[in-house]
Amino acid sequence: STTTCLRAAAVKPGWKSSNVDTQTYIFLNDVVHQPVTPSGYPESWSFYTADYQMDPDVVNDPVYGPLLNDALLSLPTMSIVTDQDNLFDSTTGIYANSTRDGVAWERPASMEYFTPDGTKQYQINCGLRIQGGYFRNHSASRKHSFRLLFKGIYGASKMEFPIFASDKHAATSFDN
């Protein structure tokens, strides 16, 4: 009944465990009306007030607000899932320490890609880092970009998926 991320693995003593599978279920109303600080999430990132919500000036705008659901359904979704501490722990979280970089600031994650009509779906385990230069700093931007890295330590060493299928000349294999 609400946006949910499920992660599961099969485990049996004396047997090799299965890989971890991730399935995300997104409800548009939850996305559009997500609060500034959802329950259980930190209220600040490295002394800066956290901001998880969509811009209320857009959500509540009489012209653009009613168009949001259709707009969100016009694009594919990329869901990135990782343990909350991997992002927000004050000592080790990559979002809380967004100016840190390099392999020491890479965390395991799962990425799912899917189209609104369900015709394309893809999931891969990967590494996750904060991407960028100046805008990694919380004083420049409180919302940061991510970089996904496909390495054998997480699963497949390449993402093999035609993410840009509308262009027949586009790459279909990615290292990051």
Q: How large is the share of residues in beta strands?
A: 25-35%
Oligomer: single chain
The rounded distance between the terminal residues' Cα atoms is 34 Å
**What string gives the helices and strands in order?**
EEHEEHHEHEEEEE
Helix count equals: 4
Task: Please describe what this structure looks like.
The protein is of the alpha+beta class and 176 residues long. 11% of the residues lie in helices and 27% in strands. The chain contains four helices and ten strands, in the order ββαββααβαβββββ. The longest helix is centred in the N-terminal third of the chain and has 5 residues, at 28-32. It is globular, with a radius of gyration of 18 Å. The two termini are 34 Å apart. The model has no long low-confidence stretch (mean pLDDT 92).
